[in-house]
């Protein structure tokens, strides 16, 4: 059974006709061609597919699109402000926080939600916020460094 | 190449693909969509060991939306395997399955869901055979055979090497220790599940895009498996979302994608589920080990005898190499004058093991470094000092004929001892807290290819044209470690331009020269040296043209800051694009090759091809832990690691490799286990297969020790694997320092810690580890003279020039 839905992703509202049981992850990747969102398990275990729904981190592999109508969905493609990268993206690139880059979109969005709520997180608070996002490449060190650097720069920008 | 004033090398620059990776632009294999794309699915065996009596695909083929269904009968009947000596795999099994997860049929359909439903409609009649689930069962049931080849019933490989008289060395020792250790298997767990897209064109030529670390080997294998000329096959490695050795074999889904594309006339994509990745595996072998070592009063090693038994799983994979690797690198860290190694790899009905970060060497390193810790305790020596005093000599050969060049291990030990406060902390931390040390070494690239040949291991073409663009064509595969970036840095350094001025075009068997792949820490040294050679040849042509224009001799020119100019007369020169125009005008098309093969140093004995490397990296690690005596929980609180990198081409990327290695070592020592019940994986999910999160990964202090090695590009050695090795024994040795127990078995889980603490309370030996060893007769060793202490030969000798 298919259903027609209006989804607002990265500020644009798009109509899709999809089977009702298709996950938000699948709809983003397959119907909206937003392949920046990755999958690591499709069981809600690894955090790779994390996106933001109304600013909150959501595992898109466990979310149904029908629940997301009328809500603001944000993927990694929506992080940059036009051609200007989000400070988190900039810091991740500069500090080598993305090695293979596969977990990176989910971690960037989780970190964005953290910094929106807590602009001055301690390193341990960053650890707790990112505890649901597995990364097998970095040992997390450069990721923590990059979130801290981005937080610092964002505070400077708003000061 | 001699390093003068450097502009790019040594800088902590972002990777050239960093921007694509932080924006979601990077196209991994599963992100690829082609017109008319079909989706594939494999039907896998639910039995660990069974004969296939009948397969009926008719119901699946009749399902609406299904384009094609194939079995092994639709493929040429050739077996394959990554090593020439172990051709024992079928993409789709025909007569027999040897593990849960063996593929028996494949479907292409309009979408993934339809493909999956179709696999459920395939009827397979199996006749179950007795499954052999352990080394003991496989050796004890000789009437049941997993394969019909090998060095004995269910014995894939048995090797025996002897370099000098170990018995005399033991007789002369002050202390002789015999210890048994077990290292449980674990898996790579890359975040990206394997994916591949095949397109069999109407011209009869095939293209495969795949998340593979070795497009070249996949290319060779496809030609064999599909029985078609390699020249008609193109393999492109997509950016790899984590490899760690898990994407080094040719896989069933890649082969099925190709065949289904041929039959349907459509591109076909396969993406494995996470559960499938756990079964595809090829990860760390479970290894049981026995090691006997003689020590002098001062802790010097008089000789070593090492035995290993590997639980290989159902197929050969890289297993012959893995077996040799469990005995190869014991000798390159400390002086080991005489050495004997016996190893055996046994087939079992489980997913095959293969190479994971450190390939076959973390297990013996764990055993050896824990034994040294025990010996130090017995001899009343400081474990750091004992190691420091007995380091191997630079530019010599080892007992087993490996040639070592530079050794920065002494400085590594000094630096971690200093940084960690080892001397103040050892033996004086509060109850439940402890500190441990271990060292290690790893190859910078395998000295031999997996198939014997005299061709380059890495090739690079550097092309420049009037636009000022420099393009680097390299067969190497970036798996996240940043190898594309390293090539850009090296070429930029040679040509005096910036990495951004360079386009790296990697890993496409139609377009790029052959590179053997991303394994054995070989890309920086091999593709890197090839890139330097190619860029240097281009620079010579550019200098020749610029010199004529400026009316100077070429030797007076330098390339720097995007200019080519006369050294000392900075305004006398031209911009880099102008220089390229002059060179293209003088020489025509500017495209120059570079080739690299390692120095030929394989020991002249069977097995001597495993272990040689142009040079070896060294690491020393100190770990502080907290052990909870109530719960048995071991928490590493801080880690210091010093790594002998030769030269850090980009310190940021080297640190990233070290940190990632430390993290992966922590997962292995404390929690990761690839374990099976009746052939079924006990925990094939990322939730239950425990791996460290941000909360379990402590602060890691990385110290880079530099000292140019004559073999490396600008003196660089490897960073991607070696730093994993010392972490595992260092944690375990710290547990001993904390609570006085020896866990001779990886992972060090709370139940083992509690058991050992219980033994300690009862006044028994506070040790948990293997109690018995398999009954197994190794072959008679071929005695070879120890080469210990002989001077290094063939240093920086390159078959294709510098």
Question: How would you sum up this structure, described in words?
Answer:
The complex is a heterodimer of chains A (159) and B (802). Helices cover 35% and strands 17% of the residues of chain A. Chain A has 5 helices and 5 strands. In chain A, strands 2-1-5-3-4 form a 5-stranded mixed β-sheet, with helices on both faces. In chain A, helix 2 (87-94) crosses helix 5. The longest helix of chain A has 18 residues, at 141-158. The model of chain A has no long low-confidence stretch (mean pLDDT 96). Chain B is α+β, with helices and mostly antiparallel strands and 802 residues long. In chain B, the strands form 9 sheets. A 7-stranded mixed β-sheet of chain B has the order 3-5-1-12-9-10-11, sandwiched between helices. A 7-stranded mixed β-sheet of chain B has the order 32-8-13-14-15-7-34. In chain B, strand 10 (206-210), helix 6 and strand 11 form a beta-alpha-beta unit. The chains are: A alpha+beta (159), B alpha+beta (802).
CATH architecture grouping of the largest domain in chain B: 2-Layer Sandwich
Name the largest protein-protein interface in this structure.
A-B, 56 and 56 residues
- Total discrete domains of chain A: 2
Number of strands of chain A: 5
Strand order of the largest sheet of chain A: 2-1-5-3-4
Mean pLDDT of chain A: 96
Strand content of chain B: 25-35%
CATH superfamily of the largest domain in chain A: Beta-grasp domain
Coarse structural class of chain A: alpha+beta
Overall 3D geometry of chain B? globular
N/C terminus separation of chain A: 52 Å
With helices defined by DSSP (H or I, 4 residues minimum), what is the helix count of chain A?
5
Rg for CA atoms of chain B:
27 Å
Radius of gyration of chain A, taken over Cα atoms and rounded to an integer in Å: 16 Å
Strand/helix succession of chain A:
EEHEEEHHHH
Mean pLDDT of chain B: 97
Query: What share of the residues of chain B lie within helices?
Result: 25-40%
CATH class of the largest domain in chain B: Alpha Beta
Architecture of the largest domain in chain A, according to CATH? Roll
Instruction: Look at the structure and name the CATH superfamily of the largest domain in chain B.
Output: Aldehyde oxidase/xanthine dehydrogenase, molybdopterin binding domain
CATH topology annotation of the largest domain in chain A = Ubiquitin-like (UB roll)
């Amino acid at each position: 059974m298919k259903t027609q839905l209006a989804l607002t992703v990265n500020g644009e509202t798009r109509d899709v006709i999809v089977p009702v049981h298709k996950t938000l992850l699948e709809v983003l990747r397959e119907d909206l061609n937003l392949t920046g969102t990755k999958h690591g398990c499709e069981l809600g275990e690894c955090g790779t597919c994390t996106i933001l729904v109304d600013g909150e981190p959501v595992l898109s592999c466990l979310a149904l699109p029908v629940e997301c109508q009328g809500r603001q969905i944000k993927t990694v493609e929506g992080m940059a402000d036009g051609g200007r990268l989000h400070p988190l993206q900039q810091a991740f690139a500069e500090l080598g926080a993305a090695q293979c880059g596969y977990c990176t979109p989910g971690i960037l969005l989780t970190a964005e939600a953290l910094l929106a709520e807590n602009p001055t997180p301690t390193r341990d608070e960053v650890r707790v916020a990112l505890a649901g996002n597995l990364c097998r490449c970095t040992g997390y060190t450069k990721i923590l460094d990059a979130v801290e650097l981005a937080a610092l720069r964002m505070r400077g920008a708003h000061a | 190449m001699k390093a003068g004033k450097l502009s790019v090398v040594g800088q902590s620059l972002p990777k050239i693909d960093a921007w694509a990776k932080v924006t979601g632009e990077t196209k991994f294999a599963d992100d690829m969509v082609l017109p008319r794309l079909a989706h594939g699915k494999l039907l896998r065996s639910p039995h660990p060991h069974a004969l296939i009596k009948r397969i009926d695909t008719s119901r699946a083929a009749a399902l609406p939306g299904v384009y094609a269904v194939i079995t092994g009968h639709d493929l040429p009947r050739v077996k394959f395997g990554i090593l020439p000596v172990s051709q024992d795999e079928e993409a789709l099994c025909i007569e027999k399955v040897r593990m849960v997860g063996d593929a028996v049929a494949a479907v292409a359909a309009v979408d993934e869901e339809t493909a999956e439903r179709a696999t459920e409609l395939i009827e397979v009649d199996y006749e179950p055979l007795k499954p052999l689930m352990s080394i003991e069962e496989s050796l004890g049931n000789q009437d049941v055979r997993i394969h019909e080849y090998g060095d004995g019933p269910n014995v894939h490989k048995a090797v025996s090497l002897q370099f000098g008289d170990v018995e005399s060395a033991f007789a002369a020792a002050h202390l002789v220790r015999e210890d048994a250790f077990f290292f449980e298997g674990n898996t790579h767990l890359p975040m990206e599940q394997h994916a591949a897209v095949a397109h069999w064109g109407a011209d009869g030529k095939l293209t495969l895009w795949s998340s593979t670390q070795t497009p070249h080997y996949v290319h060779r294998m496809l030609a064999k498996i599909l029985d078609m000329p390699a020249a008609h096959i193109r393999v492109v490695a997509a950016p790899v979302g984590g490899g760690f050795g898990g994407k080094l074999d040719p896989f069933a889904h890649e082969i099925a994608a190709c065949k289904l594309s041929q039959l349907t006339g459509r591109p076909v994509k396969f993406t494995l589920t996470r559960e499938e990745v756990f079964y595809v595996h090829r990860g760390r072998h479970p290894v049981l080990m026995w090691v006997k070592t003689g020590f002098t009063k001062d802790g010097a090693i008089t000789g070593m005898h090492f035995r290993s038994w590997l639980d290989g799983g159902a197929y050969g994979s890289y297993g012959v190499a893995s077996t040799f690797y469990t005995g190869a690198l014991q000798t390159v860290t400390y002086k080991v004058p005489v050495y004997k190694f016996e190893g055996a790899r046994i087939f079992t009905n489980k997913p095959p093991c293969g190479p994971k970060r450190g390939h076959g060497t973390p297990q013996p390193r764990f055993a050896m470094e824990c034994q040294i810790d025990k010996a130090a305790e017995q001899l009343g020596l400081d474990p750091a000092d004992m190691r420091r005093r007995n380091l191997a000599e630079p530019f010599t050969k080892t007992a087993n004929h490996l040639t070592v060049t530079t050794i920065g291990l002494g400085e590594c030990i000094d630096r971690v001892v200093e940084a960690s406060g080892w001397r103040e902390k050892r033996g004086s931390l509060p109850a439940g807290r402890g500190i441990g040390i271990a060292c290690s070494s790893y190859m910078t690239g395998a000295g031999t290819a997996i198939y014997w040949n005299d061709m380059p291991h890495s090739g690079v073409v550097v092309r420049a044209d009037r636009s000022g663009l420099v393009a680097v064509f390299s067969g190497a595969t970036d798996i996240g470690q940043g190898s594309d970036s390293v090539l850009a840095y090296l070429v930029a350094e040679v040509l005096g331009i910036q990495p951004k001025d360079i386009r790296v075009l990697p890993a496409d068997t139609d377009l790029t020269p052959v590179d053997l792949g991303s394994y054995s820490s070989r890309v920086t040294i091999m593709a890197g040296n090839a890139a330097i050679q190619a860029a240097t040849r281009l620079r010579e042509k550019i200098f020749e043209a610029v010199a004529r224009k400026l009316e100077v001799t070429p030797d007076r020119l330098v390339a720097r800051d995007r200019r080519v100019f006369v050294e000392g007369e900075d305004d006398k020169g031209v911009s880099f694009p102008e220089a390229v125009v002059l060179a293209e005008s003088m020489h025509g098309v500017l495209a120059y090759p570079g080739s690299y093969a390692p120095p030929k140093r394989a020991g002249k004995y069977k097995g001597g091809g495993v272990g040689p490397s142009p040079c070896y990296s060294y690491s020393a690690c100190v770990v502080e832990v907290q052990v909870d005596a109530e719960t048995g929980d071991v928490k590493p609180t801080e880690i210091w690691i010093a790594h002998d990198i030769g030269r850090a081409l980009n310190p940021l990327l080297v640190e990233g490799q070290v940190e990632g290695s430390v993290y992966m070592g922590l997962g292995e020592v404390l929690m990761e286990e690839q374990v099976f019940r009746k052939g079924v994986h006990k925990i094939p999910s990322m939730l239950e297969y425990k791996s460290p999160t941000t909360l379990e990964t402590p602060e890691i202090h990385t110290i880079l020790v530099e000292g140019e090695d004559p073999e490396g590009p600008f003196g660089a050695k490897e960073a991607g694997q070696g730093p994993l090795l010392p972490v595992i024994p260092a944690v375990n040795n710290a547990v001993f320092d904390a609570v006085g127990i020896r866990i001779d078995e990886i992972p060090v889980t709370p139940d083992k810690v509690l058991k050992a603490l219980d033994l300690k309370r009862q006044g028994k030996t506070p040790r948990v580890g293997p109690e018995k060893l398999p009954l197994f007769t190794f072959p008679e060793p071929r005695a070879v003279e120890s080469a210990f202490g002989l001077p290094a030969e063939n240093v920086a000798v390159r078959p294709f020039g510098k």
